[in-house]
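Question: Now follow the chain.
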Amino acid sequence: MEMGEMWKEIRMLRQQLGGREPAPKGESLFSLAILEEEFPPNFQQSNVGEYDGHADPEEHLGRFENAALLHQYSDEVRCRVFLGTLVRSAQQWFNTLQPISIQSFEDFSTAFLQRFASSKRHQKNYLSMFVMKQQEAESFREFVHCFNGAALEIPAATPDIMISAFTQGLREGEFFKSLVKKPQSSYDDLLARTKKYVNLEDAQRHNRMEQRPGVSGVEGAERRGRKRGTGEGDEDKARGIR
């Protein structure tokens, strides 16, 4: 009892001074209910990876909550399993929490998100999509790939916004003119129409390469064969071979 009172006074002094120190050995950061909760007989460990304090905390927490729902973890089990995903600086942070300060998984997750809020990935908004422009040397396939990747990071973007941003980002050309003349009503239809143009561009590029003068392709092989034949014949004549 005396030791417990002493530690309470020490913690109060630390709080007044603004300092946070690791919990004394022997004192748990979890409540007694969390510690005494037994794992279910069919317990399966979540496979959500480790968190070291540098990645987006919301993404890590979201993956864990999905796994916890799948495996039907109780609230108390969630606390202990989630602790097992923290490593390095995240584990060090956990050790600085006050004893018995975590009474539920909500306490744990709230403290976790607050501590690592600075590591949260900046959420892009739909305005960033209008900044994307197809460069002069950028193929249509490359631009579509980059645009779709950016669109996946902006779940709030509506189909109308995505169609408008995509059209405005295109370099002026045949496809741009066709979209202006005949706009698409849905983004899925736009992607289907885009795929056809990508295939057309690929075919045109391949055709230009085939027609380019050089020693590549079937024509190049025929040229090399003729040269070899001529060379061999000249060499034979020089040697006096009939």
User: Anything to note?
Assistant: Confidence is low (pLDDT under 50) at residues 17-26, 223-242.
